[in-house]
Amino acid sequence: MSTGRSHRPASDDSLPPEYDTLTSGIVLHDPATGAIIDANDHVEQLYGYTVARLREMTPEEFSANTYSKADNEFERRIDAAAAGEPQNFDWRIKRADGRLIWVAIQLTATTINGTEYVLGEISDITNYKHNDRRVSLFHRLLRHNLRNEITVIAGFASHIADIAASTPVARFAAKIDTAATSLTRVTESMRQVEATIGGEEAARTRRSAAVSVRDVAADLRSEHPAASISITEVTELWIDIDEAFDYALTHALENAIVHVESDEPSVSVAIDESPNTGRVEIRIDDEGPPIPAMELDALDDHSTTTATRHGSGCGLFVMKWCLESLGGELRIEPATGRGNSVYFYLPPQSPLQDEDAV
């Protein structure tokens, strides 16, 4: 997006025109309010908003509303920078198109034409953050899940070798089978994450959100014929997706089916526009036991290496990564009454014409 700002003469409340030639984002903040006074062309491209629109917005409006930071943290950093304490931090931005990106921000006090401001230098670090999450995920899987299951397999194999003729052999063999199955699921989760690495936006397909959900649900119904999966399309919405969406939704639905103590598990899916963000919201409600807080906390704590429950732990990471690779977000809450509510948020897209609909 280019606004021709370089052809406009600089004034007391604007950046010098030369800043538009930079390949990094530059923002001029009011040190008293934190409001954006001016920004270069690169910021318009990065955030998806015009400078005129950014001037009207508060930091909370262009920040990801589910980002786990205090509402006034951005303003506090502006205050600190204005007081002579430079600030360097990562922040999550919600673009005008609903896509979430990570940026690194450096704030410093500056003076232009005799007026004091806070200058922000902004760099897109989305790919870096995604790589960091992948490294964290693979570290967790290799250090805990794979190691623990291999230990189980080796231990019970040793017991079988020692007492091959005794009655516990069948029980030990069952333990080995369970651990091996779990290990297979872990490696499949790793394969799915690896398959999404380097995915190009151009390779994605625009589809009806409801149709995409129904396709994944149909595959699972064939594998779990006793399960009931109800799908409600409150609002017709469209999304740009690839196989990462199928992986994420499959994990969400399968977890909801296999972890409930019922011969006829029931899962409900609702597709609507998020009332707070305008993004596509896909809510999966199950009747299973609450997902342990430890697992939910681990999703946002890269330094924590607590082992995860195989049925949902690895699946949660796959869901989170796959949605983030599509510019979306994962949220999980206890459902009303019982069970869990899993929310997928994805950027909304314009609908296809009837003849192009998928």
Structure report:
This protein has helices at about 40-45, 50-55, 60, 75-80, 125-160, 170-195, 210-225, 245-260, 295-300, 315-325; strands spanning about 25-30, 35-40, 85-95, 100-110, 115-125, 205-210, 230-235, 240, 265-275, 280-285, 330-335, 340-345. It is α+β, with helices and mostly antiparallel strands and about 350 residues long. The strands form three sheets. It has a five-stranded antiparallel β-sheet with strand order 2-1-5-4-3, with helices on both faces. Helix 5 (about 125-160) packs antiparallel against helix 10 (about 315-325).
Mean pLDDT: 81
Q: Oligomeric state of the chains? A: single chain
Strand order of the largest sheet: 2-1-5-4-3
CATH topology of the largest domain: Heat Shock Protein 90
Short description:
With 358 residues, the chain is an alpha+beta fold.
Structural features:
358 residues, Beta-Lactamase, Heat Shock Protein 90, 5-stranded mixed sheet, 10 helices, 40% helix
Map the helices and strands.
Elements (H helix, E strand, L loop, with lengths): L24 E5 L6 E4 L1 H7 L3 H6 L2 H4 L10 H10 L4 E8 L5 E13 L2 E10 L1 H37 L6 H28 L8 E4 H15 L4 E6 L4 E4 L1 H16 L7 E8 L6 E6 L7 H7 L13 H13 L3 E6 L5 E7 L12
Parallel strand pairs: 7-9
Antiparallel strand pairs: 1-2, 1-5, 3-4, 4-5, 6-8, 9-10, 10-12, 11-12
Helix pairs in contact: 5-6, 5-10, 6-10, 7-8, 8-10
